[in-house]
Amino acid sequence: MTNTTAAPPRGLPGFDGLDRLITLMTGAEKHAPAAHSTTDALWVLYSRVLRVTPETVRDPGRDRFLLSKGHGPMAYYAVLAAHGFFDEEVLSGFGTYASPLGHHPDRLLVPGAEIGSGSLGHGLPLAVGTVLGLRAQGLTDPRVWVLVGDAELDEGSNHEAIAHAGPAGLEQLHTLVIDNASATHGWPGGIASRFEAADWSAATVDGRDHEALYAAFTAPHPGRPRAVIAQVEPKG
Q: Which helix (H) or strand (E) holds 67?
């Protein structure tokens, strides 16, 4: 396994500095396992895949990232800080009354956040709607990424979105499923089989292997949406 990734903007922390950034966020209700399960995948996305920067967060041509698994945002906040979306000093106020960094992200307060999230099952339907909205505007180049937890797939709203996106050929749509074995329900053949049955392109990878994540994130999938299932250690 290798965790070699591109460097963040000059003068900002690299992947090895994420733990330090996360420890700056103190207080109750941190949902630490939920946050740490996403760290590697988020880093690879923001360092090597997503076409969005602090300077282009309002550019109509930017890629969109939607964090559906909003109840564990610490890793997300740390990755945003590491890539210059806001100063790391903001992290220490996590969860306090005056801080923009709540226990669930607020798109009106967190620089770079596309949606307010936390209620499970909303992110993937919102991502489908985002792609449809971009298409309606003639914007076919921006890619839309949504990160969901495996337990979110217990929600029927996700399956309606999956069932629509495949036949509709929403090639701009990419779903990252963090699989830490916390789902109540399962599927014969694994989570990827659920997407493949709806005509998605899908792959299952080690969620801690940066090169495997990058390869899965960038694999061609003409005419179909893409799902990447990132398996990490089971939730304790």
A: strand 64-67
